[in-house]
Every structure is written in C-alpha cells, then in structure tokens.
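Hi support team,

I'm opening this ticket because the web form for multi-chain structure prediction keeps timing out on my end. I have pasted the exact lines I submitted so you can reproduce it. The total is 1037 residues across three entries, so I didn't expect it to be a heavy job. Is there a limit I'm missing, or should I split the entries? Thanks in advance, R.K.
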Amino acid sequence: MRRRRIVGTALIAVGAIALAACSAGGGGTTAGTGRGDITIWYSNNEQEVEWGKQMVEAWNAEHPDEQIKGQEIPAGKSSEEVIGAAITAGNAPCLIYNTAPSAVGQFEKQGGLVDLSSLDGGAAYIEERSGDVAQQYQNSDGEYFQMPWKSNPVVIFYNKDLFAQAGLDPENPQLSTYADFLATSKALVDAGVSTVAIQPAPTSEFFQTQFDFYPLYAAATGGQQIVEDNKATFADEAGYDVADFWATMYKDHYSSQEQFQGDAFAEGYASMAIVGPWAVSVYKDVNWGSVPVPTKDGADPADIWTFSDAKNIGLYSACKNQATAWDVLTFSTSQEQDRKLLEITGQMPIRKDLQTTYADYFAANPAYQAFGDQASRTVEVPPGPNTVQMLQAFRDAWSESVIFGKGDTKTALDEAAEKIDTIGQQP
Amino acid sequence: MTAVARPRRQRPVSGVSRAGAIVRGIVLGLGALLFLFPFYYMVIGSLQTTVDPSIAGAFPNPGNLTLDNYVAINSRINLLTGLVNSGIFTGGVLLGTFVFGLLAGYSLAMLQWRGRSATFALALLVQVVPFQLLMIPLYVLIARDFGLADNYLGMILPFFINSTAVVIFRAYFLQLPKELFEAARIDGASELRLLWSVAIPLVRPALVTVVLLTFIGPWNEFLWPFLVTKDAALQPLAVSLANYITTVSASAANPFGAILAGALVLAAPVVVLFIVFQRYFTSTDIGSGVKG
Amino acid sequence: MTDTLTTRSARAPLAAPADGRKNHRRGRLLGKNPLGLLFSGPYLVFVLAVFAFPIGYSVYIAFHDFFFAAPGAQVDRPFVGFDNFVTALTDPAVIRSFANVGVFLLINVPLTVVLSLVLATALNRITRLRTFLRVSYYVPYVTASVAVVAIWLFLFSGDGFVNQVLGPLAPDPSWLINEQLAMPTIAIFVTWKQLGFYILLYLAALQAVPKELYESASTDGAGAIRSFFSVTVPGVRSATVLVLLVSTVTGANLFTEPYLLTGGGGPNGASASPVLIMYQRGLQQGQPDVAAAIGIILVILVLIIAFIQNRFVGGDDR
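Hello R.K., no limit was hit. The queue was backed up. Here is the completed structure from your submission:
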C-alpha cells in the first residue's frame, strides 16, 4: 500500500511540474501582422469542399509567396471539439470556414480568436458587406470575433407529389398558420402518403433546437433573440405557443419521437422538412416546393423571420501570418467568390442587397429566390461564452415536455428560462 | 497451482448423453445465428441498391444486388488509404505491446524488484481511467509539447503499449513452472536468454491470442486519431467512416448502403484474422495463465 | 566444465535462493532482480510520459475554476476546492447518469458472466462445426461499434425488423426512445457485442480444468448440470474474477454506445452515461472542470466496486 501512495504522489508531482513548465506558454504574434503560407479548414460537405478548393487554387495562382493549404474538418456535431482542442494545443489553422456562431463566444473566451475589429478596416469591411445583419455577430462589447459568411435560412419544404396524392393542393399548401399546419399534417398522415408529416431531429443535442423552436419563435416575434442581456426572453406568449404547437405535432404523431435513420424527406418518410438551401441539391430527386415557417395566425411572407443557421469565418490567434489571413478572408468573401459560393453550394452569402447584386443568378435559379429573400430576415443564436450551455438547458426542457410530453410546456419553458438566467450570470 | 504447459487434445467427456449433445448443438446453433444475424444483415444491406426495412428485406431479390455501394463509398473516402493507415496505426501498437509490454509482463511475473506491485497497480489504473477524461490534456501534450499532430507517431503514442496486454502477459507467465527457470538460472542463463528461449516458446499460443485481442483496439479506434489528424491522407479507416456517417451521408444517395459497405471493409480483415488464428484459441495456456 | 557446474549447483541451495546473479547488497536497494526494473522501464516511462501528465492535469482541473485556453492567453483560474464536485453531485442529470450506468452494470455484468461461461462450456464440448460456431460468437466483438450500431438502430427502430416480427408485442414507445427500456436495450446490445471476448477468456480457462474431475463427478452419478456447478464453476474461479473486473471497468466507462445509439443521451437523459456527460460538459460546453470532477468521482466509484468484487468473489490473482 505504501508503495502505491508513493507512486501516486510521484505521479501528481510529475504532472504538476510538467504543467508548470507547459503553462509558461509562448506568446502570440501581434494581431494582424505576418505574411507567408497559411492553413485553412473548411467543412467536408461536398459542395463546400468544391468551393474551398477552387478558392484556394484561385488565390494560390496569384500569390506564390503566400500559399494556402486547405483541409477538411467534419462539419457536424464534432467540429467544435476539434477546434477547441486545436486552440488549446495552439495548432489551430489561420482560418476556419466552418465556425459556428454558437461556439464563437467560447473560443473568444479561450483566447483563440483574433478581434477582427482591431484590424485595420476590419469592422468597416464586415459592415460594408453584410449591412445591418452584421450586428448580430458582434460580441457584447461590439467587437467582431467572427466574420459573418453564409447563412441557410430555414424554411419549410414540402413534397408536391405526396401532397397531391393526399388530395391537397400542391401549389397552394395550407401551411401558414399553426391551425392550418396541423390540419395539413393530419390530412397527410391520415391519407397514409407518409408515416409522419415532418420530422425534425428529436435527439437531445443542443443544436437541434435551432431547427424546431428557433425558426418558429423568430417568425412569431419578428426576429427576437431568445436571450438578451443574459436574460431569457422566450418564456412569453409567443414561446408558449410555439412549444404547444410542436407538442401537439408530437402528441398526435405527426412527428415521430424517434430519430429516423437516413433522410426522412428524401425517403418519403415525411412529407415536409424544415431545412435551408443546402437541401436543394440533396433533394433534387424530390418534387419540392417551399414556404416560410408558420406563425400562429399567419403573416405576410415578406415579414416572416427565421433562423439563419449561419456558418462564419474565424481568424484564429494561433495564426502566424495574420496579414495574409486577413487578405485571404477578404478575397474569399469578395463579390466574385460569394457568387461562386452561391453557384456551387446554393447557400446564401451574408451580404446586404443579396438579391440585387446577384439578380441574374436568382433569375436563372428561381428555386433559390425564396431563400435569397428570406436571408435578409434571419436571427442568430445569442452571443456569449455560455451559448452552448444555454441551448443545452433549453433542449433538455424541450425534449422532456414537448417531444416526450412529460409535464407542462409552460412550466418547462419557465424553468428553462430561470436556468438560463443563472447560466447567464456566469463569467 | 501449476498446470501442464502443453496443448491438450480434446476428448469428449464421458457421461454426456446423445440427447444432451443434440440439445446443446441446437441451442448453440440458434445462438450463433442470433449473433450472426446483424452481421448478415450488414452484408445484405451493403449489396442492395435501396434499403428495405421490412422482413422481406432480409431475403433480398437477387435482382436488387449491386456493388455500387462499395464504389460510392470508395469514391468519397479512399478505402485503401484508410486500410493502410489503420494497418500502420495497429502495427505500431502491436510492436510496442509485444516488445515492451511483453518485457513488462515478464518482469512483473518472474522477477522481484522494487516497485513491482506499484507498476502492476499502475497498469490496472490506466485501464480504469476513462479516455475522455484525459483527451484534451493528452492532445495538448502530444500535439503541442511533443509536436506530433498529423503524424503517425502522434496517433500511435497513447496506445503504444496496451496495459491490458501487460496484465494478461503477466498472468500467462505466472503459470509457467518456476522450477524450469530456477534450473536455467543456475546453469547461468541471463534473464534475457530465459525470456527468449524458455518463456516465450512456452506461451507462444497465448501470444497469438494477445495479438488478436490487441489488434481490435487500435483497428476500431476512432476518437483519438480523429482528434489528432486533420490530414485526410493519414486517417485510419475507422475515422474516415465515422466522418462519412456523421456528415457526408446526408447528401448521398443510399447512404445507408454505402456506410454498411465501408463498415464491412473495416471489419473484414479482423474477421479473417480471427478465422485464420482461432484454432490457437483452443486448449492454449490462456487457461492456465488465467487460472493463476 | 562439469565440475564447475556441480560445484555451483551444490553450493547454490546453501546460499541465497537462486534468482539472478546480482550482487546481494545492491540487490537490496532495488529488489532482488533490479533487471526487472530495466525490463519494465520502457513501459513505466511510457505510462509516466503519456498518462501522468493528463491524469495529474485532470486532477488539477477538477479543483480549479478551469477552462481550456490558447497558449499564452491570460486567464484567471482560481482554486475552488470541492466546488466542482458539489456542482457535479447536485446536478440531477449527473446523478441520473450514474444511476443509468448502475442499471447497465446490473444487467450487463451478471448476464455477461453467466452467458459467457455457459456458452464457453458448450463451445468447449462441441466437435462439429466448431470453427463456424466459435467465430460467429466473436464476430460482433471484432466489428467496430460505429458499424454495428447502424445495423442495430435499423433493426430496433420503430418500424424496424424486430418490431415487425414482434407485431403487437412491440413496446410503445419503441426501444431506444422508451425511458424505461432505453438503458436495458443498450445493456443487451453491449452484452451481445462484448460476449466474444469473455467467451474467449473462459474457453481458455476451461482447458485447465482437469478432466479427471469431470470423470470422478460422473462416476459419482452427477449429471451434466450438477457437474457444471460442482466442477466447472469453481474450476474457473480466477477467470470469473477477471471477467467481472474487466466487464465492470468497461461498463462503467460506457461512452460509444449511448453516444451513437441515442445521440445525446436519449429521452430525458435516460440513457446518458457519466462519460457521455463528461464529454458534453467538458468538450462541447467548455466546462472541463466539472467534467474532470465527474471523471474522478467515476474512477473512485469503480475502484471501490472492483475492490468489493475482489473481496467477495475472492481469488488470489495477484
């Protein structure tokens, strides 16, 4: 026994010593300086890879002394862990074209991001490109630690063929009020054209809230955030209505509590989907139409807001050649590159006057027009270092009361709001 | 408590009735089918063009069979590169475990030295601590302090010597008759010589078993290599497959079939290895080693 | 030549017990065979270099208000004593995850021990189709979880094969979204998947049970079942200890299956495991301090259980 204790103490001693040695870490470069080769990461979504590669090639051809090396990272639930680990180890790349706004607060707190507003002309460039929407991407001090890049405004897709089969009008679906939406769902399921009407993911990851509660709440409140000044705002009438709506969908089995293996909409398991323009290329074999998300009593589509599902660009502090990185950033978000992004991926660059700047594109691709318009009315996740924790707290309450029908939705939302207020008090 | 360290021939135990043997056979057979069924489903699923969850799907129409899924997944993640990387990763671990782990196991079993029980306790402790607890500090250590990110060495390092193998080696060596070693020592053999010419040949069948058990860990490991490598050319197949499942599959046609195809390619080498070496499992000295 | 040998061996028993030729005075300091230290040296260096820092660091993290930061960033990390442990232990989700793992172990461990021993005994006697039968029990063990989970999800989903076969007997809500059934389903899955490994251990242990014992048992008139309980079970006792230990340790560290099968912890966290919570808190939500506290609590609990098991089931495999 004694030996074990000795070894145990020795272990901790070694650990502590190593720690002390390691935490006397290296200093970073002065922000915004340094030119040379850089590394960038982009998501491994097929179209984004294509865009990324052509952007890198275009840059590299013109800049033999400042070459970019591009790598893919998993886009899904694990990208935050990968980035967080890279920040901690100090080997994050210069630019990551897949930085989720919900994680930016945390990365900023870790000291992993460069303040773009501190760079020469940084804030001006961002606001010039994105307009008013850019404000949502500032942190609480008004600084930009991320560059708003592209969004995927969430709308409702519906399967025209299945609607026709169920005896519903495929060109004028009744989906603008909650009552209409529920009635349409009932008709679809009763007619047996699909097993469920719509299938948002019922699992408990924190980001799933962004695809059921968030868009409808944004629509119901005309673009209100769910957390403002570290206080939860969603425990209001609009919030309760949205929760009750979805609770009814689950209770009446218009949506399933079980995760569907595969793509529910593509495989005809569901007649509708709540997705963004990235879905257009995935659903090319489905005869789809799109409408904005429903509101309680219906509203003019031109006034409806939704969730942005944005992915942004971060400039990471581990970068040695930040001047080059900034130039690449501006190059990759130039009008020309944004056009390529639109053409190759169909996702909406976060640009003001999107529809007029690329009028010819939208004329040639009417399917994307609805998205182009919707892109100007999007809400982002709340900024701050505790966003993920807040969203998780919300999701837990949602899962219990709305999806699995345990307990009263109003109470659940109230409790979640309290919890989030407490979380908001954390530094 | 020493058992004879020689492989035994199987003899049917007298007194077991014919009926008992038949019942046993049937029960085992049914159990085997139950165990194999998901695997069978995997094979069938990977060969079909579209996925069919109904009962009929288990017995597919031959017209529906295709190799497209294999082509599809190979076009998105290079299966061969993945296999090679998995091989390098696993090979490195086998090397470390069999050279240093074997030495450690031997010394824990046969030699008296200061710190012996502490080392054994350490080997056990390493197994108890969950990897997720250590992940980030380990990543910092290996990526930053050792500078081994995106590097085969960085991938192999945390797994280099498998602690479970050390414990099992120790158990096997404990079973060997001490007298053999005493005699050899008296004759002037060095420990290294003893290990090489006396101990290892006696546990050779057990070594095969440890190879197979140690193989599976790194071959199927996905969390660590996933964290440590960003360069797709270095990723083992388990990682590429996991990436494919979580992201790419959403935008592919018949992703399920492609995933199953990839999974089969990942599983096939191990199954083959097991089939080839499984005869060493019978009547080996694992039993005697474990018994001690 | 022979003379020297005989002299040496004649002298040996009178001197100290024959073990190595090291100098006894030096031997005292490092044990009788300091060569052992040399042999284990690389392993020790490996463990200390690779694991000591992370384990020590994790302990450090658990006692501070900590989050990971970029190297060189100035961050405040005050020492907070047992705060993180208190936070962890008062969080209902964490308590539930420990309860879940308890349920898991209660199902998995006995099932594993019993099934693997019974199957190993049967597989030991079989003569026909031996390779096929044995390999079929190993196959789930060697296949990557990531791959097998896809199939399992497919088979056990609401409209999956299993429910179609069960027809009206199918549980509603279906297996993995059913609060009561989610964890047991995972327990069955893991048992099925790991069984091959334990069958292997038992198969080997069975080889060492002397055949004479079975013969004498049958001459005494014991049937198959009787001899199983009076000969087999006691005969493989040390294997049982090993199986118990390993299955408990791997069960307590359950992560992959809840992560893959129920994406985020199942209905109301009904299938979350402590390691899954650690992963979420530590890596996704930026709270590595609470995560480390949970981890340390888990390790201590497992060590306690392992100690108790060792006491009860006995066996001196040290």
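A quick check on our side: Chain A touches chain C through 50 residues (CB under 8 Å). Let us know if the file doesn't open in your viewer.
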